[in-house]
Amino acid sequence: MGILGAALSLIVIFSFLSDSFLTPFNIFNLARTQSLYVFVALAQAVMLVTGNMNLSVGAIAGLTAVIFGYLIDTLGLPLPVALLGAMAVALLTGAFNGFVMTKLGVNSFIVTLSTLFIFTGFVYGISEGYSFREIPAVFVKLGRGNFAGLPYLFYLMLATLIGVWYLFRYTVFGRQLLATGSNEEAAELSGINTHRVIMGANLLSAFFAGIGGLLWVSRLGAAQPAIGENWLIISFAVAIIGGTALAGGRITAIGIFGGALIMVLIKNGLILLQANVYFEQAFLGAIILFTILLDRGREVWSGKAGKK
What we know:
A two-stranded antiparallel ribbon has the order 1-2. It has 13 helices and 2 strands; from the N terminus they run ααααααββααααααα. It has helices at residues 2-17, 24-48, 57-74, 79-102, 108-127, 137-144, 152-170, 172-182, 184-189, 194-220, 231-241, 253-272, 280-307, and strands spanning 146-147, 150-151. A hairpin with a 2-residue loop joins strand 1 and strand 2 (150-151). It is mostly helical.
């Protein structure tokens, strides 16, 4: 609720500072970008909740997008087949990451840093740096259409967040993800197959990254090899701002929603206020650092309160 309160405060501030902020066009763009950021963040958050990370989320999204474009544009396959083929590749990347982490015992940072370059190499090797532009109009409409003034992607995002909330609140697998992130050794002693859980988290991460990549194609109307290049900072920023614990064991769907909203509000507000865009990364980095410090302060305070 504190995250949503901060987002509401930003809305009030920017609406007073800029007449263009609450226009229907700007609200549509804010909601659409927020929706895409949520999928980016979920790809990272489901790994963070287990105490691991996935540095290759953007590369997986880019590879999924390029495979989809290649199947549609070059091979001329039907839309459903191309979608299934692209998502199969996304899940394959997640399975590869999970296999190296669990079966070979390599740290998630090292694994996904390596696959970041491997998958990016495939992206540009397949596309040769060119975009695939023959995307079916019905699919492009998903990323550009709206209902009641809000983009279709916004409703898809809400349905996904409800599913994520249900996963971590009411399913065995969701509780195992949280338990593994809280204390992997204790989870193993309680009978949880933590290797299987981490593999599942990798598959789920790749799934969200792949969906995000495809939705980005629907927004742009083209499968561009540059899709996912700037996702790393977005995935961590939104997840952390949204209350996902870096050490694992904590995630909230409403927090991811609020974190994505705060990110797009700040980026959009800086543009409307004609702030120096060259300092945008500095602003975002400062926000992430501030959020981490707040998270750390909350942990320290909770620890002291527990001792009392």
